[in-house]
């Protein structure tokens, strides 16, 4: 797994994060759940996020740094999702991150006395579903069509069309879609 070492986050970065936090709090966080999706997409784009016109971000979702967020068509960040995107988080087409999930792209170097910040992106493939209160760690790739069960903790990449659960997450079975 390749980790990016971050020495110091610049003043400009910190100022943008602070301005973002204030704007989201005042202009969006108080709105009802998925109400005014176009307004929230506008705010995220204004701060540098790449958001498809059909993506949904619930008002109570927490996004650390909008320029590191990519949301494709019909993707969703549900209520109370903590999107700690110090590095890139990409959410694929028709993918949902359910309520209370934690997407974490950063940690600290435990092999150094200085414990410097390290980061790695999270990529969630198309047609995937991250269950409620799941944890997705830095550098993890969730394959297309994969399902991460509620409260699972994922530290390693998940194969496409797999269903995983537990802590640490383990393979449960292959996901097979039936015709309606």
Structural class: alpha/beta
The CATH topology, please?
UDP N-Acetylglucosamine Acyltransferase, domain 1
Given as residue ranges, the uncertain stretches (5+ residues, pLDDT < 50) are: none
Proportion in β-strands: 25-35%
Shape category = globular
The profile of the biggest β sheet is: 7 strands, mixed
Looking at CATH, the homologous superfamily is Hexapeptide repeat proteins
Number of helices: 2
Radius of gyration: 16 Å
Instruction: Work out the helicity level.
Output: 10-25%
> Could you give the count of β-strands?
20
What is the number of domains?
A: 1
Series of H and E elements: EHHEEEEEEEEEEEEEEEEEEE
SSE topology sketch:
Layout: E1 4-6, H1 11-27, H2 37-46, E2 50-51, E3 56-57, E4 62-63, E5 69-71, E6 76-77, E7 82-84, E8 89-91, E9 96-97, E10 102-104, E11 106-108, E12 117-119, E13 122-124, E14 129-130, E15 135-136, E16 141-142, E17 147-148, E18 153-154, E19 162-165, E20 170-174
Parallel strand pairs: 2-5, 3-6, 4-7, 5-8, 6-9, 7-10, 8-13, 9-14, 10-15, 13-16, 14-17, 15-18, 17-19
Antiparallel strand pairs: 1-12, 11-12, 19-20
Describe the structure.
It contains two helices and 20 strands. The protein is an alpha/beta fold. The protein is 15% helix and 29% strand. A hairpin with a 4-residue loop joins strand 19 and strand 20. The model has no long low-confidence stretch (mean pLDDT 92).
